[in-house]
Amino acid sequence: MSLIRNNPVAMYLQIADRLRAEIAEGAYEPSGRLPSESQITARFTVSRVTVRLALQQLDRDGLIERRKGKGTFVAGKHVRHQIDTLRSFHESLKVQGFDATMRIVELTAIETPSAFIPLFGPKCALLERLHVVNDEPIALGRSFLPAFMSELEREIAEQQPTYALLKDKAGADIVSAEIAIGARAVSPRITSLIGAAEHAVLLVLERSSYFETGACAEKSEFFIRPERYQFVLGSRMPTAESSSTCS
Q1: Which of 42, 59, 107, 238 has its CA 20 to 30 A from that of 85?
Q2: Using CA atoms, how far apart are residues 183 and 146, in angstroms rounded to an integer?
């Protein structure tokens, strides 16, 4: 539908109304990202100033968030994590259609923390990865794994979720997991890595996963920015196919 050029309603308000209706219809699911200013300008054949006025109106109405250098997003878009489904953190992002990537922070062999020695022995692997959605850090995952996992190639560890990595290396499936969810203040190192305010309180997901043999496969913590993250129990996960707000 084209804009009405000879209309008492200003062009920028017509564009704002059109985008508002599309947001309400879920047109920008699942990522929540709106087209760029240049794309909107080309779509409606108007000036960039007109588009900026339209976006300013939607911003004032609380419908969008404009992130410097990243684009414009539907306000309040939540990433959802289904906690009653055996699915890794990274997979839960991908299944919703998000542009989710992982960046290695640390991958090394370490002396096992004393509490985990009965699970992994004197040495274990530490894998820390930053989870990124649409180029924005959303969570830091820290996993203690069997020592042989320290031999992973970094490139592979940035592409595959933890459960897939474990299956490939150990040759065994993950069949169960225990999850606990809380909130706490974390170290400045963690808040800096994920772009949260210093002393911010983050969501923390603690997970223990087990092979079919009963052996512990991993002990992980995920430090998650809470603004648009939801944990979901007992409801259907949205998918890229069915849709038309951090292993």
Answers
A1: 107
A2: 27
d(CA 53, CA 98): 28
Q: How far apart are CA 131 and CA 141, in angstroms?
A: 7
For the chain, the farthest-separated pair of C-alpha atoms sits apart, in whole angstroms, at 77
> CB-based contacts of 127: which residues, under 8 Å, 6+ apart?
104, 106, 107, 141, 142, 143, 145, 149, 152, 157, 162
Per-residue model confidence (pLDDT) at position 76: 64
Residues contacting 22, CB < 8 A, separation 6+:
28
Strands (E), 8-135: 64-67, 71-74, 79-82, 100-111, 123-133
Residue-wise pLDDT for 48-80, tens only, equals 999 999 999 998 887 888 877 888 888 766 677
Helix (H) or strand (E) holding 145: strand 136-146
Question: φ, ψ for residue 85 (rounded to 5)?
Answer: -120, 135
- Tokens 């223990």 found at: 208
- 129 φ/ψ sector (left φ>0, alpha ψ -120 to 50, else beta): beta
pLDDT digits (tens, 9 = 90+) for 181-230: 999 999 999 999 998 888 889 999 999 999 999 999 999 999 998 876 77
Residue 4 has pLDDT above 70, yes or no: yes
d(CA 114, CA 210): 19
Give 188: exposed, middle or buried? Use CB within 10 Å, 0-12, 13-18, 19+: exposed
